[in-house]
Amino acid sequence: MKLSAGAEFIYQIKEPTPVVTMLRPRSTEGQFIQEDRLILSPYTPILEYIDCFGNVCQRMLLPVGNVTIRSEVVAEVADNVDVNNQAAYVLIENLPSDTLQFLFPSRYCQSDSPVIGRLAVEITKKIWSGYEQVTAISEWIHQNIAYEYGVTESSTTALDILDLKKGVCRDFTHLAISLCRSINIPSRMVVGYVKELKYIDLHAWFEVYLGGKWYAFDAVQDCTTGGRIVIAYGRDATDVALITQFGSSELLNMKVWVEQVE
Fold this sequence. Notes:
2 domains; 38% strand; Papain-like_cys_pep_sf; Transglutaminase family protein; Transglutaminase-like
C-alpha cells in the first residue's frame, strides 16, 4: 500500500539550541520511499549523517523564536507483516554479529533482571517455537498492561511498567524487548508511522530475529497490522529519539498524520 505520513513540531526556542533529529525514513526491505521532505521554518542549515544503527540523522542549530520542524513522506509499504509460526530460535553462536547488540540489557530494558527472566519463562513455558514464544509475550503484555497517557515519563523502564501495569507504546515495547532478550531472542525497538492506530501518533513497536530474519510485533495491538513506515531502529528509546535538544526550548504544538493514498 502507499501511505502519506508526516509530523510537525512547533518549538519556542529561548536561546540558540543544537538539535539532532531522526525524521527521514530510508528505503529498506519492504519499504520504498517515494517522496521525502524535511522543512524548517525559519530556514536553518542542516548537516546529515548516518548513525551506528543505519538511521538517517540531521544536525542543526535552531535560532531564537518560534521554529517549525515539518517532516513529510510518501512510501510504498507492505500491506501485512510477515508471520511464520515455525520461525525458530537461533543459537547464539549462529547469530549474525550485528544482531548481538540486541541481546544485551540496555538503559530501559533490564533483560538481566531476575524478575524479567522469571516472567518470560512463565509466559513461554511449554512453547517451543521461537515465533510463538514472542507471540505469547506480546499477547501477555497486550492483555495485562493498560494503554494510558500521562502515567509514565522519559525515565520509565520495563521494570517500572511491571509495577505500574499501564503506559504507552514505548513502555509496551521496552517490556516486550526485555522479556525477549531475557530468553536470548535478539529484539530491537522500531519507531515510525502506523496506519491502523486508534490514536494517530508517532509509534513504537519491536522486531525480533528468528529463523534468519527480523519479524515485527506490536504489543499495543491485539494483532500486529501492516501499513508501517519505519523511521529508525535501536536498542531502546535512547537510540531512537526523533528529536533531541541540547538547550532551553518548549514544544508548543505537535501533530502527526498517516493516510493511505491511491
